[in-house]
């Protein structure tokens, strides 16, 4: 299994339980973009999909450092995505909904 370190809480976890984050060059600043399918090119950082870990990463400026970007990082998309994940509170609630296309 692949283990990655969360840039927020610094705990090691299975890569599948973390969300990959990449930086995209925006018009004025870098934009942190969630990459749950791990399909985007470039350097990625790994983070628990939790507001708590995002908050920790932001406070330490760990995301920008992990992604090797300078200057401010727009966290709007990442924050919104993580907020959308918040429906599953508590420990791993694996829902077998009909979300699968194949
Ligand atoms: Zn974490």
UniProtKB/TrEMBL annotation:
Pfam families: YlxR. Residues 4-70 form the YlxR domain. It comes from the Bacteria. InterPro entries: YlxR (IPR037465), YlxR-like_sf (IPR035931), YlxR_dom (IPR007393). This is YlxR domain-containing protein.
């Amino acid at each position: 299994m692949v283990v990655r370190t969360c840039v927020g809480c610094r705990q090691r976890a299975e890569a599948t339980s973390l969300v990959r984050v990449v930086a995209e060059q925006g018009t004025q600043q870098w934009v942190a973009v969630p990459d749950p399918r791990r399909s985007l090119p470039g350097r990625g950082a790994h983070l628990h999909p939790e507001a708590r870990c995002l908050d920790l990463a932001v406070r330490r400026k760990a995301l920008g450092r992990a992604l090797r970007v300078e200057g401010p990082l727009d966290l709007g998309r990442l924050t919104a995505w993580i907020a959308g994940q918040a429906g599953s509170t508590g420990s791993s609630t694996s829902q077998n909904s009909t979300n699968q296309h194949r």
